[in-house]
Amino acid sequence: MLNPTAPSVNSLSQTSLVDLDSLVRCFYPDPSAIGHFRRVTAEELPDNARVLLAHSGHMTETVEKFHGCSVDVEILRQTRYESHYAREILLRRQSDRRIVQYGIVRLNFEFLDPDVIREIEAGQKPLGRILIDHNVLRTVRLDQLFVIEPSDSLNRIIATPDAKVLLGRTAEILCDDAPAVELLEIVCNIDPAPVGDSAATVN
């Protein structure tokens, strides 16, 4: 496993860019169906989790660098309504098919070109890779960092039935300066480590 230096980021933002409740409700009644979310700062995360989550970059690239191999996307569920499209996904390492990330993605197709939309809906590549391949002018904005006590349902999805704590984030992607993508990204199968207790409860 690679061990890149953790990037420096600001502490937890004061104003949330992503409505976690609304994003999760694309597929679940509320965030508690996934788990109990608690906000933390980057400084409270273990080193490995800070590398994976506390940055303003695409998770596709970050996860691939961290694990030292490419990843494939697996779409669990997807839905389209009006101008928006949402999907629940897993990222799996190509090397051993191990799950390394769970996520929910919501896109506003008003801000994306038809060719990009078609490739996203095809579900053959991770979102970040598609935007990079199409040279979409994009800015990833880290929103909130979380410690998550996963629900039994989430543990079954990510095939880690004994997991007590997971770590994740919300983020927003601007495409050509427009807020096109909202993300919930939860990393899996990284070394466990203690997390700071000075955090606000979300649920």
Describe the structure in your own words.
The chain has 203 residues and is an alpha+beta fold. The chain has one domain: Chorismate lyase-like (Chorismate lyase), CATH 3.40.1410. Helices cover 21% and strands 34% of the residues. The protein has a 7-stranded antiparallel beta sheet with strand order 1-5-6-7-4-3-2. Strand 3 and strand 4 form a beta hairpin. The N and C termini lie far apart (33 Å). 36% of the residues are buried.
**CATH architecture call:** 3-Layer(aba) Sandwich
User: Which structural class do the helices and strands define?
Assistant: alpha+beta
- Major sheet: order of its strands? 1-5-6-7-4-3-2
Mean pLDDT: 84
Fraction in helix: 10-25%
N→C terminal distance = 33 Å
- Characterize the main sheet: 7 strands, antiparallel
- In DSSP terms (H or I, runs of 4 or more residues), the helix count works out at 6
User: Whole-number radius of gyration?
Assistant: 16 Å
Name of the top-level CATH class: Alpha Beta
Indicate the low-confidence ranges by residue numbers.
Answer: 1-14, 197-203
CATH topology: Chorismate lyase
Annotation, overall tally of beta strands: 7
Write the layout of secondary structure elements.
Blueprint: H1 20-24, E1 35-40, H2 47-53, H3 59-67, E2 71-81, E3 84-93, E4 99-108, H4 114-122, H5 127-133, E5 138-150, H6 152-157, E6 166-175, E7 178-187
